[in-house]
Specification:
With 125 residues, the chain is an all-beta fold. It has one domain. The chain is 0% helix and 53% strand. It has no helices and eleven strands. The strands form three sheets. Strands 1, 2, 5, 6 and 7 form a five-stranded antiparallel beta sheet that branches. Strands 8-9-10-11 form a four-stranded antiparallel beta sheet, with no helix packed on it. The chain has a two-stranded antiparallel ribbon with strand order 3-4. It is globular and about 50 Å long.
Length: 125
């Protein structure tokens, strides 16, 4: 089996990303370093804002808009996130696992506005 190059990867300003496949596009979400001095050294997350871009698998082309910024969703020190797709939508679950797991908020990504918005407030302890 041989691999075939379908596109050159663009130069992105962040070294760390999440990648998710949704609606025939491979989305990249930048991740930024956030210090966690209370419990940890720190981690790289997207909920503090960043940029998105995508590769369209139908056209084999990268997003013509390049890197599009999205807004910060939270700034708490010890949050974590989980990005996933469900029913052709991209979601971000914000949670904390210090002192036990606590789910806080479910955000949905709008592909048109290129921003996350609260889909549901979740408080499960």
């Amino acid at each position: 089996m041989e691999f075939q190059t379908i596109s050159k990867f663009p130069t992105l300003s962040s070294e760390y990303h999440y990648f998710v496949f949704n609606n025939d596009k491979i989305w990249a979400f930048s991740r930024n370093y956030v210090a966690q001095p209370t419990y940890n050294w720190g981690h790289r997350v997207s909920f503090t804002g960043g940029y998105t871009t995508y590769f369209d698998t139908k056209t084999s082309e990268w997003d013509s808009n390049g890197q599009v910024d999205f807004k910060e969703q939270a700034s708490e020190e010890n949050l974590e996130e989980f990005l996933f797709t469900f029913k052709n939508q991209i979601f971000m679950l914000l949670y904390s696992h210090f002192g036990g797991i606590q789910f806080l908020s479910l955000l949905r990504f709008d592909e048109e506005s290129r921003n996350f918005a609260r889909f549901a407030h979740v408080e499960v302890r």
